[in-house]
Design goal:
- Helix 1 crosses helix 2 (32-45) and helix 2 (32-45) packs parallel to helix 3.
- The protein is an alpha+beta fold.
- The radius of gyration is 16 Å and the shape is elongated.
- The chain has a single domain (27-113), classed as 3-Layer(aba) Sandwich (Rossmann fold).
- It has 6 helices and 3 strands.
Length: 115
């Protein structure tokens, strides 16, 4: 297992900048530590494609997009708002996917949308 500490310390130097955008916090958002961790991992690993599942309001997707290179793609996937109701009511799993939403943008576009 590779620790977060090893990834960040081996890939980032003191001059590297981590960017976090000011997006209002809501009750189910990830913490500021979670956002910083996502941002640091993204900056350190420099992926060309990122997949985020459970987008909610896009706060963590923005932290990822803000720290990718400008050519990276960020794909997000979110379950429909009534997912739990449908699941509890015995809806077939294939029907649950009808409300699934996805978005795919370049990191440059994502940063522009939230600026």
């Amino acid at each position: 297992m590779v620790s977060l500490w090893e990834i960040i310390n081996s890939k980032l130097v003191d001059e590297d900048k981590i960017s976090l955008q000011a997006v209002p916090e809501r009750i189910h958002n990830c913490s500021i530590f979670d956002l910083f961790t996502l941002a640091a991992l993204t900056r350190g690993l420099n992926p060309s494609l990122c997949l985020e599942i459970g987008t909610y309001d896009g706060r963590s997707a923005l932290a990822i997009a803000s720290n990718c290179n400008s050519e990276a793609r960020v794909v997000t996937m979110n379950l429909p708002p009534n997912y739990l109701f449908l699941l509890r009511s015995g809806t077939r799993s294939s029907s649950l996917l009808t409300g699934l939403t996805t978005s795919a943008v370049s990191s440059r576009t994502a940063r522009t949308l939230f600026a």
